[in-house]
Structure formats: C-alpha cells, structure tokens
Amino acid sequence: MNKLPSGTVTFLFTDIEGSTKLAQADPDNWETLRARHHAILKSAIESHNGYVFQIIGDAFCAAFHTSEDAINAATKSQVNLNKEVWGDAPIKVRMSIHTGEADIQDNGQYIGYMTLVRVQRLMSAAYGRQTLLSSTTEQLTRDSLPKDITLRDLGERRLKDMPQPEHIFQLIIPNLPANFPPLRTLEASPNNLPTQLTSFIGREKELADVKHLLTNTHLLTLVGPGGTGKTRLSLQIATDLLETFPHGVWLVELAPISDPLLVASTTAAALNLPAEVHRPAIDMLCDYLRERELLIVLDNCEHLVEACAQIVDRLLRAAPKLHMIASSREALGITGEVSYRVPSLELPDLKNLPTFELLNQYEAVRLFIERATSAVSTFSVTNENASAIAQICYRLDGIPLAIELAAAKIRALSVEQIAKRLDDRFHLLTGGSRTELERHQTLRATLDWSHNLLSSEEQILFRRLSIFVNGWMLEAAESVCADESTLGGIRSEDILNLLEHLVNKSLVSAEEWQSETRYHVLETMRQYAGEKLIEAGESENLREHHLKYYLTLAESAAPHLLKPEQLEWLVRLEAEHENLRAALEWSLGKERPEYALRLAAALGPFWHVHCYWLEGAKWLERALAKPAQDLTAAEKTARARALYWDADLAQSLGYIERSKASAEASLALCEAGTDRRDLAIARFFVGFAYNRQGQSDIARSLIEQSLADFHELQDFFWEAVTQRWLSFILVAKGETSRSEQIAKDLEAARKAGERFSLAAALMNQARWAWENHQINEAEAYLKESEMRYDQVGYNAREVSLLRGEIAHYNSDYQGARNMYANYEEQLEMLGDIYMTSFVLEDLGILARDEGELQQAQSHYEEALKVARVVGDKSIIGFRLALLGQIELLQGNLEGAKRNFNESLSIVKKNDDLYSKSDPLLIFSNANATLQPQIAIRVLGAIHAYYRNEIKGPINPLRKRDSDSAITQVRQRLDESAFNVAWAEGKNMSIDEALDLALKTVEEM
Asked: Are the C-beta atoms of 122 and 96 separated by less than 8 Å?
C-alpha cells in the first residue's frame, strides 16, 4: 500500500483534551510534551499502514485503507500514551474513527465533506483517553476486533450539524479507563433545538465573529434580508454553545404568531414554563430567569419588533446571566444591543474562475453542490457545468435560500438551463420544502414578507430605487425618486429618512465611498422591486428622470475629465458606469436622438481614458445611426462631438476608415457652427486619420492649424495632445530632432497638468532613453508613466510592450514572451486590433531569434493583414521585409524576392524617415551571407542616414540586427574589402541604397 487511500476510507482523528490550558499552565515544557505526543501517535499510525495527511496544532488527521488498521493504531496510541510519564501535565487524547466516502486530491487533502465532518463531530463528543467509533466502522469490525478489545454500545446520539442521529460505540481497551461522563452531544445540555436535516455549509468567519461578540454583550441581533440564513446561523451558534450555558439553550420561534401580546407567552412556552392564569407571562419569565445562565434565541422578530424590544429589554434587566440572540430584518433598537449584519455567502469572481476542482472553496458554490447532490445523488461538478454553477450563485447574490431553491431544480433542469432562466427567477425559484414556512417555499414569498412589513412611503421608495443599477448616491435618489406632482407620495427632503429606514430593515445597504455614502440593493431584490415599479405604472417616468439625471452628471463631468481635477470625476463616472449604460440604453429608445448623442458625446473622454474603446464605439455607432435630418443647433453640436469621439475610439481600435469618415463628418458640422474648440478637435482627428494612412503632408497642415487654435484658446490638454502627434510628423520628416520634440512634448503635458497626456509623454521619454541605452533613466520614466496611467485608470499596456522589448534585447526570451503576452491580453480586452498587430510583429521577431521560423512567419502574416486593413504604408513595408527575411531563411527564394520587392517599392515612395531605414536594415541582415558586399554597403548608408538625417540612435533591437549582419559580413570579406564597401555605403543617400537593394532583389 504505497499511496493514500481513496474511495472508501477509514479516518482516525485525534486531539489533546484541554491543550490550551496545558500550554498556558506549563509553557516552558509544553512544546517538549507536544513533540513526545506527536512521536507516539505518528509511530502507532504508520506502523499500522496509516497516513497522517494533516496536523493542526495538536490534532492529527489520519487515513487508513481498512478499519482494522485504524482500530489497531488507535489502541496502540492510547496504550503508549497511557504508559508515558507526563509529570504534572498529563496528556489525555480523545479519538474518533469513522468509515465513509472520500477522494484524495493531488495536494494530499481529502474531498468528502460529510465524511470528514462526521468524524470531527464524533471526536468532539469524546473525552481524553476515550475512543469513539461510528456505527459504520462498528459494522465493519465487529467480527475482527483485536484480542481483548471490546466495544461498548453508547446508543444513538445527536451530533452537531448531522441531519440524523449517530449510533456510537466506545473502544474498551484493557487497563485503560472505560467509564466517562455523558458524551458531549446535543442531549447533554437542556435545549429544545430542532434536529437540522441538512448540513451547515461555510460561515466559519461569521460563526467566529458572533461567538466573540457574544462574550461581550447580552443581546446580539443577526440582521439581514430574507433568505440570507439568519435562522440557520443562529441555530448553529446555539448548537455550538450548548456546553457554555448550564441551564440550556432555547429557541423561541416567532414566525407563526402575529399578535404582539403573545411574544412573552410564546417565550415562556418554549422554556417549558407552565402558564399561570392570574400572572403575566413577562413577570413569570423574569422570576424564572433571574438566577439562571442560559441562552435564548428569538427567531424572526421583524414583524413584532416593538414588542420584542420591550420584552427583551425587561428580561435582560431582570436576569444578569441571560444571553439572547435575535434574528430580524432590523435591529431591536434597545440599549446594550449589538447588531451583526449577516452577509451573503462567499462568491467566486466570474472573471477569474478557479479550476472546477477548486470551485467548492466558495461557500455559495459549496451550498449549491451539497443541495443539488441531495436532490440528485448522481450530480457532480464538471469542467462543463462549473461556469454555470458559478453564474447561478453569483446572479443569486449568494443568498442561501435562493441557491437552495435553484439547486432543487436540478431534478428537472440542467445547471445550464437553470442559469439561463434566472432572468425570470421569481417564477423559477419555487417549490421549496412543504414543511418550511410558507415564505421560505418560494423566493417571491420571502421578499413579499419583507415588502409587506414596509410603510406605504417605504414601499414607494423601495420600488423606485430599482431604477438604479449597481448603486446610487443620496443626491441621485433625491433627484430621481422624489416627484410629488406626477409620481406622488415622496418629497425630496424625505428621501434620506426613508433610505435610513430601508437600510435598517436590511433591504438597502450603505457603504462609505469617497468620504460619502453610497447605497446598494442586491440584484435579486432590485428585480423584485422592478416588478413592483412596473405594477405601479411608474417605470416610464422613473426612466426619464434617471436619464436626465445621468445626462446632467456626464455633461458636468466631461470638461473636468481632461483637466488636473480629473481623478475624482473619473472615479465618480466609473462608480456610475452601470447607471450610465442603463441611461444610454433607454435614451436610444427615445424619439429624440439628441439625448443619446449628448450622453455618448459627454462620455467620450471617459471611454477613451478608461479604455472602454470597443464598448464606447458600439454606443456611439448606435447613437449616430439615428436619423440626422433637420437638426437643431443643439443637436448639431451633440452630433459633431459624438462624431469626433467616435473618430478617436475608432482610430484606437485600428478602424482607420471609420475614424476618418467620422472625423470628416464632424468637421463639416463644426465648420457650419460657431464653436472654435469643437472645430479644432474635429480638424485634429481628420489630420490624425490622414497621418495614419501615410498622407503626412495633409495631416501636418490640419494638425498645425488645430494646434494654433488650442494655443490661442488656452486649452492645454488638447494643445499637449496635438503637439505630441505633430512631433511624430516633424521627426519623421527630419525637420527636428526627436530628443528636442520629446522634451517639448513633456513640457506641454506637464503644463496641462492632466495625467493621461503626461503619462504618454513620459512613455515616449522612456523609449527615447532606452534607445539611447540609458536603461536606468528609461526605467525611471517607465515607473512614472505607469503611475500616471494607474492614477486615471488607463490600461498601461505600452509599459508592458517596452519592458518586453528590453527583455528581448537582453536575450531574456521568456521574460519578453511574458510581457508580450500581457500586452496582447490587455489589447484583446480593449479590442485594439491595430496595436495587437505590433505584438504579433514583436512575437514574430522573438520567434525568429529563437529559430522558430514557421511560427515567426505566421505572426508576421497576421500582423501584415492588420496593416493592410489600416492602410499604414510604413508598417506594411516593414512587415513585408520581415516576411522576406523569413522566406529567405527557409530557402524560399521566390517568396523572399516577392516580399522584399513590394516592401522596398512601397517605402521608396514614403517621406517618413524611419519607414525607409528599417526595411533596408532587415534586407541587409537577410543578405549578409548571400550578398555580403551589397549588405554592408546598404548598412553603411543606413548608419550614415541615422547620423546625418534622423540624428538619433538606431532602435536597440534593429541595432542588434545590424551588428549581427556586420559580424556575418566580416566573416566573408577581408578587412580591406569590408572597409571599401562600408565607405561606399556611407557616401550613398538612403534612396540610392533603396535603388541598390531593389536591383539586387531583381537579380536574386
């Protein structure tokens, strides 16, 4: 037996009785005693083919293939522990043995919740030196017990969390104690707690929190909305604390009663107190409880909250040793009360799901699996249904009741079908246990119960709040939900008070956000309230109010998003993003398209900075699709702004034709208007589109004109942006040095004080430093750029790209691949096909350098497709040269000739300084061994071109290609021939070098 048992497993659990007290009483010797204990147990377990798979403090968890081995190991352990001389701190160990189903995982831990819980609970009922067996293990070993070992039948006992009583047996070992106090089971303490027919899942943190709070208060109220498991949690706490209260733990169920006068008598009846006709029940309770130490659980107080408050206050004042747990939608509101809000169950992140084997680490998922398995014994989590299970739990907000009702549907529907039907969850989630309270049999009934306890004004506000998505601020609720004239019933000044009521009644949650309070409702409750809103006929008016409020917010924010105060506005819009989406969706259904256009235009800078390019482009496309005839002046302005932001997002996504068309349409509208700023922005985007298509002369004229306008208007943001893109054109034409322009761009960005433009300028500065081999300076600029991008919530993908290139240059291929992969992943999220093609280009060069030529060719071909769609001739020329090089390296001469010829022919017509040199350099590298003299002449021309025309260094990765080519040529030419060819090249113009390369290609 060389592996851990799996399937049917016998478990032996042990721990030292009173270990905490022992450690505190003799701290100097405790670790020595514990080590001896460990050694005795480990030896006994392993000598009987057992496997210790977990040790927690002084508790051992061991697994065995057979129950006989487990009993032998327990016997030997107890005998040897008893023989040991412990001195003044005797070690007494309690043990339990149970056999059940469990599967071993790769990490050495077991999956088999009910089996492991049973053996744990069995051990908790034992005393030191006592070993208990479950009935399952007894049946397996009754005829094969070791010599002189017998079993004592202790009868059926109720264990904590176990749905059915357990028949327990005690191992009788000669010369060891055989008589012990009554087992620590539920029968040991007086109580009226009901047997729980289902297991208790999770809530470890809540259990610990509540037990700790109970040590410092006499009244703890568990609050939360219906279905969150307040009753189940209070019963579990009560069960766990049975041993703490010598006079018992008592449950008072208030749900069945509706008369406040019956609260006291119901409590007395739960404690088995006989009724006294001529004496009030509250007086009888006070006398009975005065000297007793017990715990009372008052369950479901919300419909009798005032009566409960009065009675609890009276009892606690009369009985100093009394403790009480109340469960309610709202706190009782009396002196000394501590309220604890019961949260929803722990949920997985749908965007980052773990493997299906690990999905049950989340409480909500574990509950679904447990209840689904109870409904259909063959149910299991698979790779195929794991995502649907996570979606169900997430969409049901982790509400235990809702999850249990959904799990029960597994009898009739697949997990995937259940997930798809949650949009109509109130019809789906019905059919709970017939023996449950009526309101727990359907999700709708649970929420109806809470809703019916609200005042009429609270009901009105509750349903109107459903108009908000993912939360709201007080100002929004006051603006949208208060309307006496048409909707009736609520004044703006009453909203705060009513909101506080709904928070207290657990229907709305409040959290501190940006030094203010932000409110939320669970999605399940929002859908319920939304139905009530429709029933009341208020939906249309509320949507209109909601749209107008968020349109005002977006238009108020827009000017600030491109200024130094942008951070607080970006955070505000991000928090309201779901509300803005809902407002957009509603506006697109209206007859007046200017609402949709105004909202989309106002959100343009937000979408740009926070990288919602694809989403923003879709909203703008829908808004701009509305008819545009007979526009008012305001509608023309809204349409013009929507068009130029569409141009911006389209160019970010690589949709250059769409960008150009939208920019030109915007410019036409702006030229007919009077807003000079809008006109300059539209003109800039037209110029930008022309530059992306390689028509830099037209682009330059347009961008320079806009730059002058922005300067005169003192619009520092747009001046900095326009200056940066004009710099690219001027540097490419050789009219200014790159270092001079980068410094100028950085100065303009710092003057603007807006972080997005500053981050972009710093990024350019970092790249310049790297290309000049100033690695430390590059990293410093990178860090500041990344920090600025992070501040505005921008996806700083360019940082990953540059770090990838630096790693690539340093031959850290794995580091480069990781950075490129991160960059590509970010771009895929943004939908940026244009920049994605640059990642493919870099991955292709990386694959080439690693000798993976076919992979490199595949990357180049994909990158070239994008470049052709965009129409950027410079990029097309470079990628064709890369393909030509790969074809040549693979021996495909015709393919190499075709690609090099097209590449060099394209770039010969360009006036971009950089576009001519890079394809030529790749050509030289590819021909270094075939045509060494031609290659070195072209390289000489390129180096002279950089020195005299570009006046800057060669990109380090291109420099490495150049160095590689020079090395190869030197291996084939003697020093004299090399120097002559190099000198000839230095005296050639770049166009002469292109002509030489093209002629060489034709002769290949």
From this structure: yes
- Residue 614 in contact with residue 652, Cβ under 8 Å? no
Q: pLDDT category, 431, cuts 50, 70, 90? A: low
**What's the one-letter identity of residue 751?**
K
For residue 462, CA distances in Å to 293, 506, 532, 578, 913 come to 42, 12, 9, 19, 65
* Residue that terminates a domain, selected from 399, 425, 445: 445
Q: Which domain holds residue 317?
A: 204-341
**Pair 96, 117 in one domain:** yes
What confidence score (pLDDT) does residue 433 get? 52
SS3 243: helix
155 plus 14 within the same structural domain: yes
Are 807 and 822 spatial neighbours (Cβ–Cβ below 8 Å)?
no
E strand or H helix that includes residue 207: helix 204-214
Residues 256 and 326 reside in one and the same domain: yes
Mean pLDDT, the chain, integer: 88
How many CA atoms does the CB half-sphere of 450 hold within 13 Å? 27
Residue 854 has pLDDT above 50, yes or no: yes
Domain's final residue, options 341, 359, 374: 341
Q: Which amino acid is at 412?
A: A
H or E element: which one contains 517? strand 516-520
Within its chain, how far is the Cα of 100 from the centroid? 36
**Average pLDDT of the segment spanning 590-611:** 87
CA distances from 539 to 174, 414, 422, 548 (A): 79, 34, 21, 14
Please give the pLDDT value at position 278.
81
The 3-state secondary structure of 732-769, one letter per residue:
HCCCCCHHHHHHHHHHHHHHHCCHHHHHHHHHHHHHHH
* Residue 438 confidence (pLDDT): 52
Q: Quote the strand ranges of 477-605, DSSP E.
A: 509-513, 516-520
**Res. 435 pLDDT band, cuts 50 70 90:** very low
CA dist., res. 668 & res. 300, Å (int) = 67
In a domain, 141, yes or no: yes
81 alpha-carbon distance from chain centroid: 50
Asked if residue 228 and residue 265 are part of one domain, the reply reads yes
- Of the candidates 837, 845, 887, which has an alpha carbon nearest to the alpha carbon of residue 862? 837
Nearest Cα neighbor of 608 from 794, 735, 781 is 794
- pLDDT tens for each residue of 198-212: 778 888 899 999 999
CATH of the domain at 282: 3.40.50.300
* Cα-only R_g, the chain: 38
Alpha helices in 300-414 (DSSP H): 305-318, 363-375, 386-395, 400-408
Helix segments in 482-537, DSSP class H = 495-504, 523-535
- Asked if the structure places residue 221 within a domain, the reply is yes
What span, in angstroms and rounded, lies between the C-alpha atoms of 407 and 402?
9
Residue 748 φ then ψ, to 5° = -65, -40
pLDDT number for residue 793 = 78
Instruction: Quote the CA–CA distance of 49 and 283 in Å, as a whole number.
Output: 63
- For 646, 795, 834, the CA distances from 827, given in Å and listed in that order, are 18, 9, 9
Given this model, what pLDDT does residue 271 score? 92
User: What pLDDT, in 10s, does the model give residues 455-482?
Assistant: 999 999 999 999 999 999 999 999 999 9
Contact (CB, 8 A) for 12 and 60? yes
> Does residue 781 sit within a domain?
no
Residue 509, classified by CB atoms within 10 Å of its CB into exposed (0-12), middle (13-18) or buried (19+), is middle
Question: How many whole angstroms separate alpha carbon 774 and alpha carbon 854?
Answer: 34
Asked, for residue 822, whether it belongs to a domain, the answer is no
Q: Can you tell me the distance from the alpha carbon of 416 to that of 116, in angstroms, rounded to the nearest whole number?
A: 30
pLDDT computed for residue 437 by the predictor: 47
Separation of alpha carbons 684 and 697, rounded Å: 13
* Tokens 């860090």 sit on residue: 783
| pLDDT tens digits, 126-167 | 999 999 999 999 999 988 898 889 999 988 887 876 767 889
pTM (2 decimals)? Answer: 0.69
